[in-house]
Amino acid sequence: MRIAVIGLGVLGASTARSLALAGAEVTVFERSAPGAGTTGTTFAWVNSHQKNPLSYHDLNIAGVLEHHELGGDWFRPTGNLEWADGPDGAERLRASTEQLRERAYPMEWISPRRARELVPDLVVPAGVDEIAYFPEEGHVLPIALLARLWGEARDHGAKLRCPAEVVAVSGGTVDLADGGRESFDAVVLATGRWTEQLASTAAVAIPMAGIEPATVGFLGYTSPVAARVPAVLTTPRLNVRPDGGGRLVVQGLDLDGDADPAAVPPADGEHAADLCARLRELVSGTEGVRLESLRVGQRAMPADGLTVAGFAAPRLYVLATHSGITLGPLLGRIAAEEILAERESPLLADFRPTRFSGLDRSTLKPLTRARFAGQQ
């Protein structure tokens, strides 16, 4: 079976890998470079936090387990530590953790002393007596994950066309910007925030959120620091994860209102200085820290906030999600099974692209930053 995969981020690479492992003849079309989209600008936290409804939570749980089963040094299941700021924040955190407990999600409340055993250089603010610890969560090194998935796809015969811009699809037909046209038994769209535009060429409606508060944010990448931060930290003023080689990735969600993909601030500007100051407050051993780069990430988010996965038209399969890191390996495997074996997964029952057929977009609820903060 000849299959085209459009887009070589984590979703595209995962799908190409699973298809190639199953014996399909796979061609991947990438417009610019592997990982050039959201995969290259993501906090890469593997979790099922605040992911509702229950079917979406269950899908993300399966995604976390897929990472554990796949294994590899690109996945760091070191846990996540979280606390809140003020009575209102503490109440929201308590409510969310109670919901997770009801869903049998692994978590426990730990003391600041125990938190410092897990993250030796953590500075816990005065007044924080309890910290939520999620032991099975972790983080991914995104490009290392991409290399693993795409490398195994290549090992099993997958081919890459890059640069190769796809401008239209129709069933199994792919039209290229250079005027070429090729036919396949099936086409997979894994094009992230460009999904709506490309799907529309096949008369398929997949509404995606544009540039708005829920979809854009700053990511700071530090110089190497002599600090021990093995786990993910999600705190009121700063989120932090390791990035290898002593570097850290930092994220201050309240700063994201200034984020603009068309005007990325310098790595030594005001926003960078603020992120570094917050890091020095949170982690010992970060004196003199600076940012090597400051990026603006843009999430690939369907307009209703939920994953899209499944056949949108005959021979056209669509994958789009703002939880691409958590769900990438799982969705790629399920997509390959659905395409090749024609066997639908019950995990995806609530996330089919056909839910948008005939939908009035104005009825969709606004996507707020609070609803999706930190989700990957």
Summarize the structure.
The chain is an alpha+beta fold. The protein is built from 9 helices and 20 strands.
Structural class: alpha+beta
Q: Which percent bin holds the helix content?
A: 25-40%
Query: Regarding CATH, which class of the largest domain?
Result: Alpha Beta
The CATH superfamily of the largest domain bears the name FAD/NAD(P)-binding domain
CATH-derived topology of the largest domain:
FAD/NAD(P)-binding domain
Instruction: Characterize the main sheet.
Output: 8 strands, mixed
Per DSSP E runs of 2 or more residues, the count of β-strands stands at 20
Shape: globular
Explain this structure.
This protein has 376 residues and is α+β, with helices and mostly antiparallel strands. The protein has 2 domains: 2-43 and 142-210 and 302-372, 3-Layer(bba) Sandwich (FAD/NAD(P)-binding domain), CATH 3.50.50; 80-135 and 216-298, D-Amino Acid Oxidase, subunit A, domain 2 (D-Amino Acid Oxidase, Chain A, domain 2, 2-Layer Sandwich). It is 29% helix and 22% strand. It contains 9 helices and 20 strands. It has helices at 10-21, 54-70, 86-102, 112-118, 142-155, 195-200, 270-282, 324-341, 369-372; strands at residues 2-6, 25-29, 45-46, 75-76, 80-82, 108-110, 131-134, 138-140, 159-161, 166-170, 173-176, 181-183, 186-189, 216-222, 232-234, 239-242, 248-251, 291-298, 308-313, 316-320. The strands form 4 sheets. Strands 6-7-5-15-16-17-14-18 form an 8-stranded mixed beta sheet. The chain has a 6-stranded mixed beta sheet with strand order 9-2-1-13-20-19. α1 (10-21) runs parallel beside α8. It is globular, with a radius of gyration of 21 Å. The protein starts with a strand and ends with a helix. InterPro entries: FAD-dep_OxRdtase (IPR006076), FAD/NAD-bd_sf (IPR036188). This is FAD-binding oxidoreductase. It holds the Pfam family DAO.
